[in-house]
Amino acid sequence: MNAIPLTHTRISEIINRLDYFHGLETETLDQLAAGARQMAFRRDEPIFHKGMPADTLHIVVSGQIKVFLPQPNTGEKVVALVERGESFGVASLWLGEAHLADAVANKDSHLLIIDRQALMRRARVDCVLAGRLMDALSHRVKDMMRNLESCTPKSAQQRVACYLWQRRPADAGHHYDVLLPTTKREVATKLNLTQETFSRVLRQMAEDGCIEVKGRLIRVLAVARLEGLNSATRALQPE
Amino acid sequence: MNAIPLTHTRISEIINRLDYFHGLETETLDQLAAGARQMAFRRDEPIFHKGMPADTLHIVVSGQIKVFLPQPNTGEKVVALVERGESFGVASLWLGEAHLADAVANKDSHLLIIDRQALMRRARVDCVLAGRLMDALSHRVKDMMRNLESCTPKSAQQRVACYLWQRRPADAGHHYDVLLPTTKREVATKLNLTQETFSRVLRQMAEDGCIEVKGRLIRVLAVARLEGLNSATRALQPE
DNA sequence: CGTGTCGTTGAGCGCTTTCAACCCTGGTGG
DNA sequence: CCACCAGGGTTGAAAGCGCTCAACGACACG
User: Which CATH number is A216's domain given?
Assistant: First the structure.
């Protein structure tokens, strides 16, 4: 971890480049910048741990952050992968409580870190800022909902099918590509699977001609088949 | 479902009685009331379905609402149980997108329903209102995080232990009581378990002298034993 | 008393996990 | 150019665990 000392004008530059802060009052931008700093994290370096007080807002400037729940047997459950322009740990921050999960840098990353006091003070008077935080939280809820949805189904095949189906582009024709955002092992934990099972399921689906796998690139060939997997296991039975 | 025609003053009364709207500008209260109505739902009556447009804010005035993800095999995954004074479906509402889950009345219930336009219009100028929505969403995220945490562990025992441990009161001594908010079957689905497995685990833990079960009331006798069962749900200590 | 819902208990099966070894690819240095 | 290595990924065999299915018990309600 490495705090990067930057002039206020430099911080302001960074803030201005982020969509997150587009269109905010200059008064807000100034005050946020005054309570902000940038930090660099190496791969695998922890940002915060579950249970620590949440007194700063974290926004990803570059790299990728993994948010996860530590599990009993040194395992972990990936809750979210945060990329450039997104924030994380917002719920805890807003409530002024302890962090609910751990966060580590998945790659070498730069974070913009803003003081909670400055943020809360401005959120009380600048509705646009409050709205941005609502946006962030709403997307988090949406993401967690999908997460729950795709890690709940019984069979591993259904979970993988669900995962791939959720990632189909809006204009999806018969086939489309999905690029895994990280290692297969971590994607597997997001689905509550082991990397082994994940691998086996992918191979099976590939053999069935449903998908093609080239490293982290997965080409879905038959969307209908995915939907079939999601609703099937019951198609066999007449009611 | 039954729309209850009420005078504006009656609606205002209801709004004033809810903590949700405490301390808001009168201008906000008036406009929200103007776009509000109350509705009654019988037990098992659907409020909305996944995929429907989210164009109203729902707040529970009385009763209990179950928010769940429909599953392939006529199963369901309970995401949240919403009680008096709480709202649901806020994330979809804020984003102006489709609902992410289904909602049904778990008991006979009354809901306060507020028009999205009125809400968004006021949230743009009344930061306190925006703050309330942030509160609601933050608690939802917190709740979903706990949900994820308690339905992720491998063993059924760990999940149940985690669930009970999360519900320990702040001032917990050696023992405390947990009252299940609904049927054991639904609590089980929240933990991604069948009611049968849930039942078996409870019996096992009771035999071990770890808990006592009397219907939906569970008395935890040995908190330490719970922590032993899932040692990693606690905050991590630095190495 | 029937009837329905909730909850319990039992038996057997199938899936996922576990643990193991192995493969493959990219990077590094001789 | 090749030998070597580490990390990500694959594959195989065995075993544990929760699910399914089915029957039964408890309790409330009419």
Answer: 1.10.10.10
Integer Cα distance of A59 and A84 in angstroms: 8
DSSP readout, B102-161?
Answer: EEEESSSEEEEEEEHHHHHHHHTT-HHHHHHHHHHHHHHHHHHHHHHHHH-SSSHHHHHH
- Flag whether pLDDT at B237 surpasses 60: no
pLDDT at res. A71: 80
Q: For residue A121, what is the nearest residue in chain B, using CA coordinates?
A: B127
Distance CA A34, CA A114 (A): 9
CB pairs under 8 A between A and B: 154
> B124 and A127: CB-CB below 8 Å?
yes
Check whether residue A107 has its CB closer than 7 Å to nucleic acid strand D.
no
Residue range of the domain that includes A231: 152-236
| Interchain contact, A141 vs B139, CB within 8 Å | no
Give pLDDT tens digits for A27-71: 999 999 998 999 999 988 999 999 999 999 999 999 999 999 988
What's the pLDDT at A184?
A: 96
- pLDDT attached to residue B116: 97
Average pLDDT over residues A203-226: 92
CA nearest neighbour of B61 among B112, B10, B23, B20: B112
**B94 and B7 within one domain:** yes
Q: Which two tokens stand for residue A4?
A: 């990067």
Contacts of A95 in chain B (CB under 8 A): 135, 138-139, 142
Q: Which residue of A has its CA nearest to B102?
A: A145
Predicted pLDDT at B141? 97
* Per-residue pLDDT tens over the stretch B15-54: 889 999 998 999 999 999 999 999 999 999 999 999 999 9
Last residue of a domain, one of B103, B120, B144: B144
Number of domains in chain A: 2
Mutation for A interface: B122, B134, B227, most A CBs within 10 A = B134
**A160 and A100 both lie in a single domain:** no
Q: Are residues A225 and A130 in the same domain?
A: no
pTM value surpassing 0.85: yes
Q: Do A145 and B235 touch (CB under 8 A)?
A: no
pLDDT in tens, B71-90: 866 678 899 999 999 999 99
B117-139 pLDDT, tens digit per residue, is: 999 999 999 999 999 999 999 99
| Interface touch B138/A98, C-beta < 8 Å | no
Both tokens assigned to A27: 């008064």
CA distance A55 to A24: 22
Residue B136 identity (one-letter amino acid): A
Give the H or E element holding residue A137: helix A127-151
- On whether both A114 and A166 belong to a single domain, the answer is no
Answer for B194: CB within 7 Å of strand D. Answer: yes
